[in-house]
Amino acid sequence: xxxxxxxxxxxxxxxxxxxxxxxxxxxxxxxxxxxxxxxxxxxxxxxxxxxxxxxxxxxxxxxxxxxxxxxxxxxxxxxxxxxxxxxxxxxxxxxxxxxxxxxxxxxxxxxxxxxxxxxxxxxxxxxxxxxxxxxxxxxxxxxxxxxxxxxxxxxxxxxxxxxxxx
Length: 166
Hints:
Elements: H1 9-18, E1 23-27, H2 34-41, E2 47-55, E3 61-67, H3 74-81, E4 87-88, H4 91-98, E5 118-123, E6 132-134, E7 141-145, H5 147-156, E8 162-164
Parallel strand pairs: 2-6, 3-5, 5-8
Antiparallel strand pairs: 1-7, 2-3, 2-4, 6-7
């Protein structure tokens, strides 16, 4: 894994192991939406999450990570995080900044943000669930991780997450 080559799931798992972070992963059919994920997951315990890759007119980036049922008012959230009026980042920007494709957005992609261009924003209520479930850089798997370990991983990647109620 180099700064120019995005991490693969195996690179992510190696990094989690190096950090002593417990994780478990299941494989499944690829899912692209929260609805598809709900239908497929069966009885996977814990908090199930969605992730929004946002940008503003100044090309600043945010990764909003929250429970799948969270209702997001982009205008309100944008004001609270200093983004103004954010919009969703394009597939090209997503690949350029986080090294992933649409449908695979995950806080684990911060492993690819070597320049710390993205500000992670975590929903406070989400951190009350354990484990938390995210795609491990691909949407044909789900990886479970404890909330405190998610925060530790994000910080290890050089980011200081903003934790908000929304």
